[in-house]
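Section 5.1 Outputs to date
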Amino acid sequence: MNGKALAWCVNGGKRLATLGNPQETIQILQKHDFHFQKKFGQNFLVDTHVLGKIVEAAEVGENDFILEIGPGIGTMTQYLCERAKKVLAVEIDKNLIPVLKETLSPYSNVEIIQGDILRQDIAEIAKKYNGGKPIKVVANLPYYITTPIIMSLFESRVPLENVTVMVQKEVADRMKAKPGTKDYGALSLAVQYYAEPYLAANVPPNCFIPRPRVGSAVIRLTARTEPPVPVQDERLMFRLIRASFNQRRKTLQNAIANSSELPYSKEETGQVIQEAGLSPSVRGEKLGLAEFAALADRFLQCGE
């Protein structure tokens, strides 16, 4: 089904009003006397075209289990329920649970959990609901917690097929940025180490209630089955990456030598950079994953 076809659905002979426009969203919020909480960064999507784009980007099929993070009033959840075998929706705001129970009541293939996604055992969720097979994640994330949630999903080695998220436009740009560009940074390298990013849609502020101050984007992160580069110590590589971008205007040598996370002197760092065939004046923003992996391996050799 596309976004327009989902505007009204029939389930078991019962016609369902699928949320996805401002009038329906306002009605349900007023009915439950719901008040937006700034601490949760709540912005509800009210554009059926974009909702359809998210479902398509996530490649949701009839045999899929979907973990939805931040269902809000259930707008996206309804679309997912129409396509997926099972949807588990995790919502942190307890005031939205009565709303979700109403908007999702016609669907038998959805379960709601009230809680913080960062405190859920997602590997156990995958095991319980999907037999331990890779799951698909769909989320409309508050901007302030986008990076912690995404990196937690990948770093914890949860079995993932893809993660499709609505994020701030500049965050999406950073996730897919290439070396040497203004958006390139530690987040670019971390995301691209674990996944292949694909920008599915740009979403203007007028697609939300209330309107955010900045534009958004839908990005799909397809989990890699193998890292794109071999490295002996991932943690060391990421410490080098963080050090390089914490002081991105400094040379790579100075940034690493000044890092509190790393034990290397300026002389040691300079020697490793030279052995890696890099210029002494190079900055981290010019290096890709392969160069950072090679540096990490060389630092390990120096410590042996």
